[in-house]
UniProtKB/TrEMBL annotation:
GO terms for molecular function: homogentisate 1,2-dioxygenase activity; metal ion binding. Pfam families: HgmA_C, HgmA_N. It comes from Fonticula alba (Slime mold). It is an enzyme of class 1 (oxidoreductase). Homogentisate binds at residues 400, 425. Pathway: Amino-acid degradation; L-phenylalanine degradation; acetoacetate and fumarate from L-phenylalanine: step 4/6. The active site is at 342 (proton acceptor). One of its GO terms (biological process) is L-tyrosine catabolic process. Residues 331-485 form the Homogentisate 1,2-dioxygenase C-terminal domain. The keyword DNA-binding does not apply. This is homogentisate 1,2-dioxygenase.
Length: 502
Protein backbone atom coordinates (compact mmCIF):
# COMPACT_ATOMS: atom_id res chain seq x y z
CA UNK A 1 0.00 0.00 0.00
CA UNK A 2 1.34 3.43 -0.80
CA UNK A 3 0.09 6.82 0.04
CA UNK A 4 -1.74 9.01 -2.38
CA UNK A 5 -1.32 12.18 -0.37
CA UNK A 6 2.01 13.95 -0.55
CA UNK A 7 4.02 13.07 2.54
CA UNK A 8 6.64 15.41 3.95
CA UNK A 9 10.27 15.10 2.97
CA UNK A 10 12.11 12.28 4.69
CA UNK A 11 8.83 10.91 5.76
CA UNK A 12 7.45 7.43 5.40
CA UNK A 13 4.70 7.08 2.85
CA UNK A 14 3.15 3.81 3.89
CA UNK A 15 0.66 3.25 6.66
CA UNK A 16 2.30 0.25 8.23
CA UNK A 17 5.35 0.91 10.36
CA UNK A 18 6.62 -2.56 9.57
CA UNK A 19 7.09 -2.01 5.86
CA UNK A 20 9.24 1.09 5.89
CA UNK A 21 12.28 2.24 7.76
CA UNK A 22 11.05 5.16 9.75
CA UNK A 23 12.68 8.53 9.86
CA UNK A 24 13.59 9.77 13.33
CA UNK A 25 11.53 12.52 14.84
CA UNK A 26 13.05 15.89 15.54
CA UNK A 27 11.92 18.81 17.63
CA UNK A 28 10.32 21.41 15.42
CA UNK A 29 9.69 24.42 17.57
CA UNK A 30 10.91 26.23 20.63
CA UNK A 31 8.28 24.49 22.77
CA UNK A 32 9.84 21.13 21.99
CA UNK A 33 6.91 19.86 19.89
CA UNK A 34 7.87 16.94 17.65
CA UNK A 35 8.03 16.80 13.88
CA UNK A 36 5.39 14.74 12.09
CA UNK A 37 5.57 12.03 9.46
CA UNK A 38 2.52 13.38 7.67
CA UNK A 39 1.07 16.67 6.63
CA UNK A 40 -2.04 17.95 8.38
CA UNK A 41 -4.75 20.54 8.09
CA UNK A 42 -4.75 22.83 11.11
CA UNK A 43 -7.43 24.69 13.09
CA UNK A 44 -9.62 23.31 15.85
CA UNK A 45 -13.15 22.42 14.72
CA UNK A 46 -12.77 23.91 11.25
CA UNK A 47 -14.67 22.71 8.19
CA UNK A 48 -11.89 21.29 6.02
CA UNK A 49 -11.77 20.25 2.38
CA UNK A 50 -9.24 17.51 1.69
CA UNK A 51 -8.40 15.80 -1.60
CA UNK A 52 -5.85 13.06 -2.24
CA UNK A 53 -6.48 13.59 -5.99
CA UNK A 54 -7.27 17.03 -7.40
CA UNK A 55 -10.81 18.10 -8.23
CA UNK A 56 -12.33 15.08 -6.49
CA UNK A 57 -14.72 16.96 -4.21
CA UNK A 58 -17.97 17.77 -6.01
CA UNK A 59 -18.24 21.46 -6.68
CA UNK A 60 -21.17 23.30 -5.14
CA UNK A 61 -23.08 20.22 -3.98
CA UNK A 62 -22.59 17.09 -1.89
CA UNK A 63 -24.52 14.47 -3.86
CA UNK A 64 -24.14 14.82 -7.62
CA UNK A 65 -25.91 12.18 -9.70
CA UNK A 66 -22.46 10.77 -10.44
CA UNK A 67 -19.59 11.95 -8.25
CA UNK A 68 -16.25 13.07 -9.71
CA UNK A 69 -13.99 10.06 -10.42
CA UNK A 70 -16.97 7.72 -9.99
CA UNK A 71 -16.78 7.75 -6.19
CA UNK A 72 -19.59 7.09 -3.74
CA UNK A 73 -20.73 9.98 -1.55
CA UNK A 74 -21.25 8.98 2.09
CA UNK A 75 -22.23 11.28 4.92
CA UNK A 76 -20.94 10.69 8.44
CA UNK A 77 -23.11 12.49 11.01
CA UNK A 78 -21.41 13.27 14.30
CA UNK A 79 -24.40 15.12 15.71
CA UNK A 80 -28.14 14.95 15.10
CA UNK A 81 -29.05 16.57 11.76
CA UNK A 82 -30.93 19.29 13.59
CA UNK A 83 -28.35 20.19 16.25
CA UNK A 84 -28.05 24.01 16.40
CA UNK A 85 -24.88 25.41 14.91
CA UNK A 86 -24.31 27.41 18.09
CA UNK A 87 -23.79 24.23 20.08
CA UNK A 88 -21.91 22.49 17.27
CA UNK A 89 -23.34 20.64 14.31
CA UNK A 90 -20.74 18.12 13.16
CA UNK A 91 -20.75 16.11 9.96
CA UNK A 92 -18.49 15.13 7.10
CA UNK A 93 -18.90 13.96 3.52
CA UNK A 94 -16.60 11.18 2.42
CA UNK A 95 -16.01 10.36 -1.27
CA UNK A 96 -14.96 6.75 -1.42
CA UNK A 97 -14.39 3.90 -3.86
CA UNK A 98 -17.07 1.73 -2.28
CA UNK A 99 -19.70 2.58 0.32
CA UNK A 100 -19.00 1.39 3.87
CA UNK A 101 -22.08 -0.78 3.79
CA UNK A 102 -20.44 -3.31 1.45
CA UNK A 103 -19.60 -5.78 4.17
CA UNK A 104 -20.97 -9.07 5.46
CA UNK A 105 -23.12 -9.03 8.60
CA UNK A 106 -21.79 -8.33 12.08
CA UNK A 107 -21.05 -11.20 14.41
CA UNK A 108 -20.30 -10.88 18.10
CA UNK A 109 -16.70 -11.52 19.06
CA UNK A 110 -17.10 -14.06 21.79
CA UNK A 111 -13.54 -14.07 23.15
CA UNK A 112 -13.69 -12.56 26.66
CA UNK A 113 -12.70 -8.90 26.88
CA UNK A 114 -12.08 -6.55 29.77
CA UNK A 115 -14.07 -3.78 28.13
CA UNK A 116 -17.01 -2.35 30.06
CA UNK A 117 -19.92 -0.44 28.54
CA UNK A 118 -22.26 -0.30 31.55
CA UNK A 119 -20.68 0.66 34.84
CA UNK A 120 -23.83 0.20 36.91
CA UNK A 121 -23.38 -3.55 36.80
CA UNK A 122 -21.59 -4.81 39.93
CA UNK A 123 -20.31 -7.93 38.21
CA UNK A 124 -17.93 -5.73 36.19
CA UNK A 125 -17.42 -2.51 38.18
CA UNK A 126 -17.77 -1.42 41.80
CA UNK A 127 -18.25 1.79 43.76
CA UNK A 128 -15.03 2.34 45.75
CA UNK A 129 -14.54 5.53 47.79
CA UNK A 130 -10.94 4.64 48.70
CA UNK A 131 -7.92 6.41 47.27
CA UNK A 132 -6.64 4.02 44.60
CA UNK A 133 -3.35 3.79 42.79
CA UNK A 134 -2.04 1.41 40.21
CA UNK A 135 1.58 0.60 39.41
CA UNK A 136 2.34 0.65 35.67
CA UNK A 137 -0.16 -1.49 33.79
CA UNK A 138 1.54 -4.70 32.67
CA UNK A 139 2.73 -5.18 29.14
CA UNK A 140 1.76 -8.42 27.40
CA UNK A 141 4.47 -11.03 26.91
CA UNK A 142 5.83 -11.06 23.37
CA UNK A 143 4.25 -14.47 22.82
CA UNK A 144 0.80 -13.01 23.57
CA UNK A 145 -0.02 -11.22 20.31
CA UNK A 146 -1.92 -8.13 21.43
CA UNK A 147 -3.14 -5.29 19.27
CA UNK A 148 -4.88 -2.05 20.21
CA UNK A 149 -8.27 -3.79 20.32
CA UNK A 150 -7.37 -6.95 22.22
CA UNK A 151 -5.18 -4.85 24.54
CA UNK A 152 -7.96 -2.39 25.47
CA UNK A 153 -9.10 -2.76 29.08
CA UNK A 154 -11.51 -0.62 31.05
CA UNK A 155 -10.16 0.78 34.33
CA UNK A 156 -13.07 2.90 35.57
CA UNK A 157 -16.18 4.61 34.37
CA UNK A 158 -19.72 5.72 35.00
CA UNK A 159 -23.07 5.35 33.32
CA UNK A 160 -23.83 3.43 30.23
CA UNK A 161 -22.98 3.66 26.55
CA UNK A 162 -26.43 2.55 25.44
CA UNK A 163 -28.20 5.54 26.98
CA UNK A 164 -25.37 7.90 26.01
CA UNK A 165 -24.69 9.01 29.51
CA UNK A 166 -21.35 8.65 31.24
CA UNK A 167 -17.79 7.86 30.35
CA UNK A 168 -15.20 5.13 30.40
CA UNK A 169 -11.48 5.23 31.11
CA UNK A 170 -9.41 2.51 29.49
CA UNK A 171 -5.76 1.59 29.15
CA UNK A 172 -4.30 -0.08 26.10
CA UNK A 173 -1.20 -2.18 25.78
CA UNK A 174 -0.06 -3.62 22.46
CA UNK A 175 2.83 -5.49 20.90
CA UNK A 176 1.35 -5.88 17.41
CA UNK A 177 -0.09 -3.60 14.76
CA UNK A 178 -3.68 -4.17 13.68
CA UNK A 179 -3.46 -6.51 10.69
CA UNK A 180 -6.19 -6.08 8.05
CA UNK A 181 -8.36 -4.93 10.91
CA UNK A 182 -10.14 -1.63 11.26
CA UNK A 183 -11.93 -0.42 14.36
CA UNK A 184 -14.65 2.10 15.05
CA UNK A 185 -16.26 2.97 18.34
CA UNK A 186 -20.05 3.15 18.24
CA UNK A 187 -20.23 4.13 21.91
CA UNK A 188 -18.52 7.50 22.05
CA UNK A 189 -15.49 9.64 21.26
CA UNK A 190 -12.00 8.43 22.14
CA UNK A 191 -9.29 10.70 23.50
CA UNK A 192 -6.07 8.68 23.20
CA UNK A 193 -3.05 9.49 25.40
CA UNK A 194 0.00 7.42 24.41
CA UNK A 195 2.41 6.82 27.25
CA UNK A 196 4.85 4.36 25.69
CA UNK A 197 5.62 3.89 22.00
CA UNK A 198 4.62 5.90 18.96
CA UNK A 199 1.54 5.06 16.91
CA UNK A 200 0.67 5.40 13.28
CA UNK A 201 -3.08 5.70 13.11
CA UNK A 202 -4.55 5.10 9.68
CA UNK A 203 -8.02 6.59 9.54
CA UNK A 204 -10.67 6.99 6.88
CA UNK A 205 -9.70 10.67 6.82
CA UNK A 206 -5.97 10.04 6.40
CA UNK A 207 -2.85 9.20 8.35
CA UNK A 208 -1.97 10.45 11.82
CA UNK A 209 1.24 9.77 13.71
CA UNK A 210 1.25 10.06 17.46
CA UNK A 211 4.01 10.05 20.05
CA UNK A 212 3.91 10.11 23.84
CA UNK A 213 3.21 13.72 24.89
CA UNK A 214 0.79 14.03 21.98
CA UNK A 215 -2.90 13.14 22.05
CA UNK A 216 -5.49 12.22 19.46
CA UNK A 217 -9.26 12.44 19.45
CA UNK A 218 -11.13 9.95 17.29
CA UNK A 219 -14.83 10.75 17.28
CA UNK A 220 -17.54 8.09 17.33
CA UNK A 221 -17.90 6.00 14.18
CA UNK A 222 -14.63 6.88 12.46
CA UNK A 223 -12.69 3.82 11.31
CA UNK A 224 -9.06 3.52 12.19
CA UNK A 225 -6.18 1.06 12.51
CA UNK A 226 -3.40 1.44 15.04
CA UNK A 227 0.08 0.48 13.84
CA UNK A 228 3.01 0.48 16.25
CA UNK A 229 6.24 2.35 15.68
CA UNK A 230 8.06 0.23 18.20
CA UNK A 231 7.78 -3.25 19.67
CA UNK A 232 5.40 -2.12 22.38
CA UNK A 233 2.84 0.54 23.11
CA UNK A 234 0.86 1.57 26.15
CA UNK A 235 -1.46 4.45 26.85
CA UNK A 236 -4.73 5.71 28.26
CA UNK A 237 -8.09 6.34 26.62
CA UNK A 238 -10.87 8.63 27.81
CA UNK A 239 -14.17 7.79 26.20
CA UNK A 240 -17.21 10.04 26.51
CA UNK A 241 -20.56 8.45 25.79
CA UNK A 242 -22.17 11.76 24.90
CA UNK A 243 -21.02 15.18 23.78
CA UNK A 244 -17.66 15.98 22.33
CA UNK A 245 -14.31 17.44 23.27
CA UNK A 246 -14.07 21.17 22.89
CA UNK A 247 -11.64 23.91 23.82
CA UNK A 248 -12.39 25.45 27.21
CA UNK A 249 -13.62 29.03 27.36
CA UNK A 250 -10.83 31.37 28.40
CA UNK A 251 -12.83 34.01 30.29
CA UNK A 252 -10.60 36.84 31.51
CA UNK A 253 -7.52 35.14 30.03
CA UNK A 254 -8.65 36.54 26.68
CA UNK A 255 -8.34 35.11 23.20
CA UNK A 256 -4.95 33.45 23.50
CA UNK A 257 -3.47 30.80 25.70
CA UNK A 258 -3.76 27.23 26.95
CA UNK A 259 -4.29 25.02 23.88
CA UNK A 260 -4.39 27.32 20.86
CA UNK A 261 -6.75 26.34 18.01
CA UNK A 262 -4.06 26.52 15.32
CA UNK A 263 -2.06 23.72 16.93
CA UNK A 264 -4.73 21.06 16.40
CA UNK A 265 -3.90 18.88 13.41
CA UNK A 266 -6.35 17.00 11.18
CA UNK A 267 -5.29 14.31 8.69
CA UNK A 268 -5.24 14.91 4.96
CA UNK A 269 -7.19 12.64 2.62
CA UNK A 270 -5.26 9.47 1.90
CA UNK A 271 -6.38 6.17 0.43
CA UNK A 272 -4.74 2.81 -0.02
CA UNK A 273 -3.46 2.95 -3.59
CA UNK A 274 -4.66 -0.56 -4.40
CA UNK A 275 -8.06 0.01 -2.82
CA UNK A 276 -9.94 -0.37 -6.09
CA UNK A 277 -8.21 -3.50 -7.34
CA UNK A 278 -7.17 -5.43 -4.26
CA UNK A 279 -10.32 -7.42 -3.58
CA UNK A 280 -10.07 -10.72 -1.72
CA UNK A 281 -11.94 -13.73 -3.08
CA UNK A 282 -14.20 -15.73 -0.80
CA UNK A 283 -13.07 -19.19 0.33
CA UNK A 284 -14.39 -22.36 -1.40
CA UNK A 285 -17.39 -22.33 0.95
CA UNK A 286 -18.14 -18.72 0.08
CA UNK A 287 -16.95 -17.57 3.51
CA UNK A 288 -14.46 -14.74 4.14
CA UNK A 289 -10.80 -15.78 4.29
CA UNK A 290 -7.86 -14.32 6.21
CA UNK A 291 -7.27 -12.04 3.21
CA UNK A 292 -10.47 -10.17 4.02
CA UNK A 293 -10.60 -7.11 6.22
CA UNK A 294 -12.29 -7.24 9.59
CA UNK A 295 -14.18 -4.13 10.62
CA UNK A 296 -14.56 -4.32 14.38
CA UNK A 297 -16.86 -2.09 16.37
CA UNK A 298 -17.34 -1.56 20.08
CA UNK A 299 -21.10 -1.38 20.36
CA UNK A 300 -22.67 -1.03 23.82
CA UNK A 301 -19.41 -2.24 25.33
CA UNK A 302 -19.31 -5.43 23.25
CA UNK A 303 -17.12 -6.15 20.26
CA UNK A 304 -18.62 -7.10 16.91
CA UNK A 305 -16.83 -7.86 13.67
CA UNK A 306 -17.91 -7.63 10.03
CA UNK A 307 -15.84 -9.03 7.15
CA UNK A 308 -15.32 -7.22 3.87
CA UNK A 309 -13.10 -8.16 0.93
CA UNK A 310 -11.57 -4.68 0.46
CA UNK A 311 -9.85 -2.01 2.51
CA UNK A 312 -12.00 0.47 4.41
CA UNK A 313 -9.32 3.08 3.66
CA UNK A 314 -10.65 4.07 0.24
CA UNK A 315 -11.68 7.69 0.90
CA UNK A 316 -10.17 9.80 -1.89
CA UNK A 317 -11.55 13.12 -0.67
CA UNK A 318 -13.59 14.45 2.21
CA UNK A 319 -14.94 17.68 3.55
CA UNK A 320 -16.44 18.50 6.90
CA UNK A 321 -15.82 19.32 10.53
CA UNK A 322 -16.29 15.80 11.92
CA UNK A 323 -12.81 14.30 11.73
CA UNK A 324 -10.07 12.94 13.96
CA UNK A 325 -7.30 15.22 15.17
CA UNK A 326 -4.08 15.33 17.14
CA UNK A 327 -2.39 17.83 19.45
CA UNK A 328 1.14 18.08 20.79
CA UNK A 329 1.01 18.83 24.53
CA UNK A 330 4.33 20.70 24.25
CA UNK A 331 2.36 23.49 22.55
CA UNK A 332 0.15 24.08 25.60
CA UNK A 333 0.71 27.64 26.82
CA UNK A 334 0.75 27.27 30.58
CA UNK A 335 -0.82 30.00 32.70
CA UNK A 336 -0.33 30.22 36.45
CA UNK A 337 0.19 32.59 39.34
CA UNK A 338 3.04 35.09 39.24
CA UNK A 339 2.26 36.31 42.73
CA UNK A 340 1.04 33.90 45.41
CA UNK A 341 -1.22 30.91 46.10
CA UNK A 342 -1.99 27.76 44.20
CA UNK A 343 -4.43 28.04 41.30
CA UNK A 344 -7.06 25.38 40.69
CA UNK A 345 -6.00 22.88 38.02
CA UNK A 346 -8.75 24.05 35.67
CA UNK A 347 -6.10 26.46 34.34
CA UNK A 348 -4.45 23.39 32.82
CA UNK A 349 -7.49 22.19 30.83
CA UNK A 350 -6.57 21.15 27.30
CA UNK A 351 -9.99 19.93 26.21
CA UNK A 352 -13.37 19.75 27.91
CA UNK A 353 -16.50 17.75 27.24
CA UNK A 354 -19.26 19.97 28.56
CA UNK A 355 -22.36 18.77 30.39
CA UNK A 356 -25.65 20.63 30.10
CA UNK A 357 -24.84 22.55 33.30
CA UNK A 358 -22.65 25.56 32.51
CA UNK A 359 -19.13 25.17 33.86
CA UNK A 360 -19.59 21.53 34.84
CA UNK A 361 -17.71 19.06 32.68
CA UNK A 362 -18.66 15.54 31.74
CA UNK A 363 -14.88 15.27 31.54
CA UNK A 364 -11.93 17.62 31.40
CA UNK A 365 -8.58 16.57 30.04
CA UNK A 366 -6.07 18.42 32.22
CA UNK A 367 -2.27 18.31 32.04
CA UNK A 368 0.51 19.25 34.46
CA UNK A 369 3.20 20.42 32.06
CA UNK A 370 6.75 21.62 32.73
CA UNK A 371 6.63 25.24 33.88
CA UNK A 372 8.10 27.74 36.29
CA UNK A 373 6.95 27.77 39.91
CA UNK A 374 7.41 31.28 41.27
CA UNK A 375 4.71 31.77 43.90
CA UNK A 376 5.82 33.83 46.90
CA UNK A 377 5.10 32.73 50.51
CA UNK A 378 3.06 29.81 49.18
CA UNK A 379 2.81 26.06 49.70
CA UNK A 380 3.53 25.23 46.08
CA UNK A 381 2.35 21.63 45.50
CA UNK A 382 -1.37 20.90 45.13
CA UNK A 383 -3.36 21.70 48.25
CA UNK A 384 -5.15 19.03 50.30
CA UNK A 385 -8.68 18.79 49.08
CA UNK A 386 -11.94 16.95 48.69
CA UNK A 387 -13.61 17.44 45.36
CA UNK A 388 -17.20 17.01 44.19
CA UNK A 389 -15.65 15.93 40.89
CA UNK A 390 -13.77 12.63 40.45
CA UNK A 391 -10.08 12.73 39.56
CA UNK A 392 -8.39 9.98 37.56
CA UNK A 393 -4.70 10.67 36.96
CA UNK A 394 -2.09 9.12 34.73
CA UNK A 395 1.59 9.81 34.19
CA UNK A 396 3.14 9.94 30.74
CA UNK A 397 6.66 10.60 31.90
CA UNK A 398 8.69 11.73 34.90
CA UNK A 399 7.40 12.31 38.42
CA UNK A 400 4.31 14.19 39.61
CA UNK A 401 4.80 17.16 41.90
CA UNK A 402 2.36 15.95 44.58
CA UNK A 403 3.92 12.52 44.92
CA UNK A 404 7.57 12.15 45.84
CA UNK A 405 9.49 9.74 43.61
CA UNK A 406 8.27 7.97 40.49
CA UNK A 407 9.29 4.46 41.58
CA UNK A 408 7.19 1.42 40.66
CA UNK A 409 5.19 1.41 43.90
CA UNK A 410 4.77 5.18 43.78
CA UNK A 411 3.00 7.17 41.08
CA UNK A 412 4.98 5.92 38.11
CA UNK A 413 4.74 6.45 34.34
CA UNK A 414 2.19 4.03 32.91
CA UNK A 415 0.38 3.78 36.25
CA UNK A 416 -2.67 5.65 37.47
CA UNK A 417 -4.54 6.95 40.49
CA UNK A 418 -8.18 7.53 41.26
CA UNK A 419 -9.46 9.99 43.84
CA UNK A 420 -13.18 9.61 43.58
CA UNK A 421 -15.93 12.08 44.41
CA UNK A 422 -15.28 13.66 47.83
CA UNK A 423 -12.37 11.32 48.59
CA UNK A 424 -9.67 13.32 50.41
CA UNK A 425 -6.22 13.50 48.84
CA UNK A 426 -3.22 15.74 48.38
CA UNK A 427 0.56 15.66 48.58
CA UNK A 428 2.04 12.63 50.27
CA UNK A 429 3.86 12.99 53.57
CA UNK A 430 7.34 13.46 52.12
CA UNK A 431 6.16 16.01 49.59
CA UNK A 432 4.38 17.96 52.32
CA UNK A 433 7.46 18.11 54.53
CA UNK A 434 9.78 19.05 51.68
CA UNK A 435 7.45 21.74 50.33
CA UNK A 436 6.79 23.25 53.78
CA UNK A 437 10.50 23.57 54.44
CA UNK A 438 11.82 24.47 50.98
CA UNK A 439 13.49 27.80 50.34
CA UNK A 440 11.16 29.51 47.89
CA UNK A 441 12.77 30.65 44.71
CA UNK A 442 11.80 30.45 41.03
CA UNK A 443 12.02 26.79 40.15
CA UNK A 444 11.36 24.66 37.08
CA UNK A 445 8.59 22.24 37.93
CA UNK A 446 8.69 18.83 36.48
CA UNK A 447 10.97 19.45 33.49
CA UNK A 448 10.57 16.61 31.01
CA UNK A 449 7.57 15.26 32.83
CA UNK A 450 3.89 15.13 32.04
CA UNK A 451 1.10 14.04 34.35
CA UNK A 452 -2.53 14.37 33.34
CA UNK A 453 -5.98 14.15 34.85
CA UNK A 454 -9.36 13.05 33.54
CA UNK A 455 -11.66 15.04 35.82
CA UNK A 456 -15.36 14.26 35.70
CA UNK A 457 -18.58 15.16 37.48
CA UNK A 458 -19.52 11.48 37.35
CA UNK A 459 -18.80 9.20 40.28
CA UNK A 460 -16.38 6.64 38.87
CA UNK A 461 -16.57 2.90 39.46
CA UNK A 462 -13.28 1.08 39.02
CA UNK A 463 -13.67 -2.17 37.12
CA UNK A 464 -13.17 -5.59 38.61
CA UNK A 465 -10.33 -6.05 36.12
CA UNK A 466 -8.57 -2.95 37.48
CA UNK A 467 -9.17 -3.98 41.08
CA UNK A 468 -8.83 -7.74 40.96
CA UNK A 469 -7.13 -8.92 37.79
CA UNK A 470 -4.73 -6.21 36.62
CA UNK A 471 -2.29 -7.30 39.33
CA UNK A 472 -1.01 -3.74 39.82
CA UNK A 473 -3.37 -2.13 42.30
CA UNK A 474 -1.31 -0.81 45.23
CA UNK A 475 -2.84 -2.15 48.46
CA UNK A 476 -0.88 0.26 50.67
CA UNK A 477 -1.40 3.47 48.69
CA UNK A 478 -3.16 5.24 51.53
CA UNK A 479 -0.09 4.76 53.73
CA UNK A 480 1.66 7.61 51.88
CA UNK A 481 -0.44 9.92 54.10
CA UNK A 482 0.18 8.02 57.33
CA UNK A 483 1.86 9.88 60.19
CA UNK A 484 1.39 13.31 58.74
CA UNK A 485 3.40 15.62 60.99
CA UNK A 486 1.42 17.66 63.48
CA UNK A 487 2.87 21.15 63.47
CA UNK A 488 0.15 22.81 65.48
CA UNK A 489 1.47 25.28 67.99
CA UNK A 490 -1.15 26.34 70.56
CA UNK A 491 1.32 28.77 72.14
CA UNK A 492 2.37 30.77 69.12
CA UNK A 493 1.72 31.51 65.46
CA UNK A 494 4.86 29.78 64.18
CA UNK A 495 4.42 26.18 63.13
CA UNK A 496 6.41 23.65 65.07
CA UNK A 497 9.07 22.76 62.55
CA UNK A 498 10.46 19.51 63.85
CA UNK A 499 8.68 16.39 62.63
CA UNK A 500 6.50 15.63 65.65
CA UNK A 501 5.06 12.45 64.16
CA UNK A 502 8.26 10.41 64.41
O1 LIG B 1 -5.13 15.96 43.05
C1 LIG B 1 -4.29 16.29 42.23
O2 LIG B 1 -3.09 16.03 42.33
C2 LIG B 1 -4.71 17.15 41.05
C3 LIG B 1 -4.75 18.57 41.46
C4 LIG B 1 -3.69 19.40 41.23
C5 LIG B 1 -3.70 20.70 41.65
O3 LIG B 1 -2.64 21.48 41.40
C6 LIG B 1 -4.78 21.19 42.36
C7 LIG B 1 -5.87 20.37 42.60
C8 LIG B 1 -5.85 19.07 42.15
O4 LIG B 1 -6.90 18.25 42.32
FE1 LIG C 1 -7.05 16.48 43.30
Amino acid sequence: MTSSSAPMDAVMDAPSAKRVKLSPYTKVNANGASSSRYRYHTGFGSHFSSEALPDTLPKGQNSPQVCPRGLYAEQLSGTAFTKPRTTGNFFSWLYRIRPSVGHRGYSAINAPTEIVGDFSCSTVALPVPDQLRWSPFRMPADSEATDFISGLKSVAGAGSASVRNGLAIHVYTANRSMERTSFYNSDGDFLIVPQLGGLDIQTEFGMMDLLPNQIAVIPRGIRFSVNLHDKQARGYVLEVFNGRFDLPDLGPIGANGLANPRDFEYPMAHYDQDAATNVAAPGPDGAPTDEWWRVVTKFQGKLFSAAQPFTPYDVVAWHGNYAPYKYDLANFMVINTVSFDHCDPSIFTVLTCRSLEPGVAVADFVIFPPRWGVADHTFRPPYYHRNCMSEFMGLINGAYEAKAGGEEDGFAPGGASLHNTMTPHGPDRNTFIAASDEKLQPRRIADGTQAFMFETHFMLSPTRWALERSGVVQPRYVSCWENMPVRFNPDGLEAIREDSSA
